[in-house]
Amino acid sequence: MLEFILLQAEGAATAQPGQGSTWSMWVMLILIFVVFYFFMIRPQQKKQKELQKQRDSMKKGDKVITAGGIYGIIKEAGETTFLVEIAKDTVIKIDKGSVYASAEDAQAAPKDEKK
Questions:
Q1: Angle in degrees, CA 107, 111, 115, rounded to 5
Q2: pLDDT of 89 strictly over 70
Q3: Closest CA to 29 of 3, 9, 45
Q4: pLDDT band at residue 114, thresholds of 50, 70 and 90?
Q5: What is the pLDDT of residues 31-45, one digit of tens each?
Q6: What is the spatial order of strands in the sheet that 90-95 belongs to?
Q7: What is the pLDDT of residue 7?
Q8: CA-wise closest residue to 25 among 9, 37, 4, 2
Q9: Which helix (DSSP H) or strand (DSSP E) does residue 113 occupy?
């Protein structure tokens, strides 16, 4: 694909005005942006929406992992934070953006949905 783009650019540089080479260059540029959108930007946006939905559905008693790698259990869920118990009588306050469902819960969730 890179060779094709380079050949198009070379042809556009040597072509005489009025042959439509400018239009083909713009079409290729737009096509590249469309490919970037569908293969890079859109999947990342979908992944972020799923992650946000998962964080919003977390409740008291769910096992979580923080972005720093600390395992714990949610004791209280606030608007933008969680209180997470990481050891007996040790509770920390963590922003929702740095919390992920634990691997154990993620594997168990599909099994629970089938029942």
A1: 160
A2: yes
A3: 9
A4: very low
A5: 999 999 999 999 999
A6: 90-95, 81-87, 71-77, 63-66, 99-101
A7: 66
A8: 9
A9: helix 103-114
In a 3-state reduction of DSSP, which class is residue 87? strand
Tokens representing 1? 């694909």
If you search the block for the tokens 């409740």, which residue do you land on?
59
Give whole-number Cα distances, 65 to 23, 32, 55, 96, 102, in Å: 52, 38, 12, 11, 5
Q: What is the pLDDT of residues 16-75, one digit of tens each?
A: 555 568 888 899 999 999 999 999 999 999 999 998 898 888 889 889 998 888 999 999
Q: Which residue has the tokens 């608007």?
A: 79
What are the phi and psi torsion angles at 15 (to 5°)? -75, 155
Residue type, 57: S
Amino acid making up residue 96 = K
